[in-house]
Write a structure and sequence with these properties.
single chain; eight-stranded mixed sheet; tRNA_methyltr_TrmB_bact; tRNA (guanine(46)-N7)-methyltransferase activity; 21% strand; Rossmann fold; 2 domains
């Protein structure tokens, strides 16, 4: 994508009422006004809050919002030029229960209060296969600790990925730490009992993976 397109998307994001882009200092200093106030200030209801971390183009968040109007969805990504597509679609279709937050996932605890979130989706994250990149994997111990802080007591985390490495790494970590694995499958589209939320929604790249007969893995779990 050219830099002109990126700049155009950044400018358009600023006009969208469903896009929130706090400054890094504001978040780092724990001064983000929406922390603890997402339902009150943004959604104007008390419905459950579900995050999609690393939401990319926002396709998953938007489709979840279409299907589940009584749940509030927030797509989180640092790259605003990517989620521009999802934000624009939600504006054009007047989908009120999905918004987008531009921030680093490392700062997620500064954007949401303790027990403010009901569920988290991590869809097709970069598996960061090299050992020196372990600290960047979105299911490492440090990230799980961050998620635990913002999730409600019985909060759910979903990991959907085409990376067998990421699937195996996460499953091993969860079992080793004594977390509760509710569902796990290394080829979810071949499992008749797979949740509709998982197989009923596909991102653009996911469709391509499936055309190539690449297995899609899925884990649903709770943190102890």
């Amino acid at each position: 994508m050219g830099s002109k397109n990126k700049l155009k998307r950044f400018r358009e994001n600023e006009t969208f009422s469903n896009v929130y882009q706090p400054g890094r200092e504001e978040v780092m200093n724990d001064n983000f006004a929406l922390k603890g106030n997402w339902n009150k200030e943004v959604f104007k209801n008390n419905n459950p809050i579900v995050l999609e971390l690393g939401c990319g183009k926002g396709e998953y968040s938007v489709e979840l919002a279409r299907r589940y109007p009584n749940i509030n969805f927030i797509g989180v990504d640092i790259k605003g030029s990517r989620f521009w597509r999802g934000a624009k679609t939600a504006v054009e279709e007047n989908i009120p229960n999905v918004v987008f937050l531009r921030t680093q996932i490392e700062l997620i605890e500064n954007c949401f209060a303790t027990h403010e979130v009901d569920e988290i989706w991590i869809t097709f994250p970069d598996p960061q296969i090299k050992y020196k990149r372990t600290k960047h994997r979105l299911t490492n111990e440090e990230f799980l600790a961050r998620y635990k802080n913002i999730l409600k007591e019985e909060g759910i985390i979903n990991l959907k990925t085409d990376s067998e490495f990421m699937h195996g790494y996460t499953l091993g970590l969860l079992h080793g730490a004594g977390h509760k694995v509710l569902y796990a499958n290394h080829n979810v589209y071949r499992n008749e009992g797979a949740p509709e939320m998982v197989t009923g929604i596909q991102t653009f790249y996911e469709s391509q993976y499936l055309e190539q007969n690449k297995p899609i893995t899925y884990i649903k779990f709770q943190l102890k």
